[in-house]
Design brief:
This protein is 34% helix and 26% strand. Helix 5 runs antiparallel to helix 6 (237-257). By secondary structure, it is an alpha+beta fold. The protein is built from eight helices and 14 strands. The radius of gyration is 19 Å and the shape is globular. It has helices spanning 72-88, 113-128, 135-143, 201-207, 214-233, 237-257, 267-281, 305-313, and strands spanning 2-15, 20-22, 27-28, 32-49, 55-60, 68-69, 96-103, 158-161, 174-178, 185-191, 287-289, 296-301, 320-324, 331-332. The relative contact order is 0.19. The strands form three sheets. Strands 1, 4, 5, 6, 7, 8, 9 and 14 form an eight-stranded mixed sheet that branches. The chain has a four-stranded antiparallel sheet with strand order 11-12-10-13. A two-stranded antiparallel sheet has the order 2-3. It binds ligand DP6. Ligand DP6 binds at residues 13, 16-17, 32, 112, 114-115, 147-149, 201-202, 291-292. The site of ligand DP6 has 14 residues, from helix 2 and helix 4.
Length: 333
């Protein structure tokens, strides 16, 4: 027996992945752009065992001290991913595993915990099967976990996930467009709820094309991404921020108008958005984005993070805040 340990960050998408052109291969309809998060990290320790019949996992959730056994569905996804990884890595070996996983942040609340977990598992399985993959190939394996956003947690810093072409799985990979120290910005996560979301992203992706606005967003995205990349390379937050906010609003408009509709914003979400708008009017630059959950990610200059955090933490509905800086991707410990 030996043990493999991996740390992997969650990531926040500035341009969202929403909708799958192939659900089996987890292929997206559009490019997405993200940043790895320094304080939202999953740690995975995996004992690699000779007996392939042993498949166990325990999870230590945010805010608890003791681990709980993985639910049946959670263990099934990992076991399925093991089979996918074995085929992808071309191995005929078989091993058993005992996994301990712990998150530094609330699960399933709009901070992609499956991204950090499945990117960590992709690296852990590659290591266990003794295959050294370059980051692009490893990102493809992470994508095949079914949690598409996991591929963006493999490379370092700021990351672009390419749509790819047709059903060519290897063409849809993630790559770093800049190291973490390229741009001194922060993502202040505003936790207004740490309850688990009711509809999984997988179900949400299925419905995306049914929104009457889906096609309009797809048509506008190439220009949005190109403008956001230019603003990013110029480290121009005043241009980047409004484009990111508009993209987040478009993404939520699709969710709210797809069939069946998905409403993630709560009253608390809107309280936070209003405070951000007020802050901006007073000269404090900060911009929001929101994933498939009610928590808000506030993007601001790194030097402003504590001021922004303190200001928004004072809103009664806010339960917790997590300050993140750009971070490296999945790493063996
Ligand atoms: C809304 O299918 O990657 O976060 O498996 O739940 O993490 P999980 O989700 P996934 O879709 C996430 C989509 C998104 C936007 C994004 O991160 O691009």
């Amino acid at each position: 027996m030996h043990t493999i340990a991996v740390n992997s960050p969650s990531n926040i998408a500035f341009v969202k992945y929403w909708g799958q052109r192939d659900s089996h291969l987890t292929l997206p309809f559009n490019d997405s752009l993200s940043m790895n998060l320094s304080s939202c990290v999953t740690t995975v320790e995996m004992d690699v065992l000779d007996d392939p019949s042993i498949r166990e996992m325990v999870i230590t959730e945010y805010g608890t001290d003791s681990p709980r056994p993985a639910r049946e569905g959670e263990l099934r996804r990992v076991t399925e991913f093991y089979t996918v990884a074995r085929t992808f890595l071309g191995s005929d070996r078989d091993f058993g595993f005992r996994i301990r996983s712990a998150n530094s942040f609330p699960q399933k609340a709009g901070i992609a915990s499956s991204a950090s977990f499945f990117s960590a598992m992709a690296l852990a399985f590659a290591r266990a099967f003794e295959v050294n993959l370059e980051p692009k190939r490893l990102s493809v394996l992470a994508r095949l976990s079914g949690s598409g956003s996991a591929c963006r947690s493999i490379p370092d810093g700021f990351v672009l996930w390419h749509t790819g072409t047709g059903l060519d799985s290897s063409s849809s990979f993630a790559e770093s467009i800049a190291e973490p120290d390229f741009w001194d910005i922060a993502d202040v996560v505003i936790v207004v709820s740490s309850g688990e979301k009711k509809v999984s992203s997988v179900e949400g992706h299925m419905g995306a094309p049914s929104s009457p606005y889906f096609r309009a967003r797809q048509l506008g995205l190439p220009e949005t991404i190109s403008d956001m990349k230019d603003a990013f390379l110029a480290r121009d937050l005043s241009t980047f921020g409004p484009l990111m906010e508009q993209e987040a609003i478009n993404f939520h408009a699709i969710m709210m108008s797809q069939v069946p509709p998905l409403f993630y914003w709560s009253g608390a979400t809107l309280d936070v958005l209003r405070e951000i708008v007020t802050m901006r009017a007073e000269g404090q630059e900060a911009y929001f984005t929101i994933d498939a959950g009610e928590n808000v990610h506030v993007i601001c200059r790194g030097s402003d993070a504590e001021t922004v955090r303190g200001r928004i933490a004072a809103i009664p509905a806010v339960k917790d805040t997590i300050v993140n800086y750009p971070a490296v991707g999945a790493r063996l410990v």
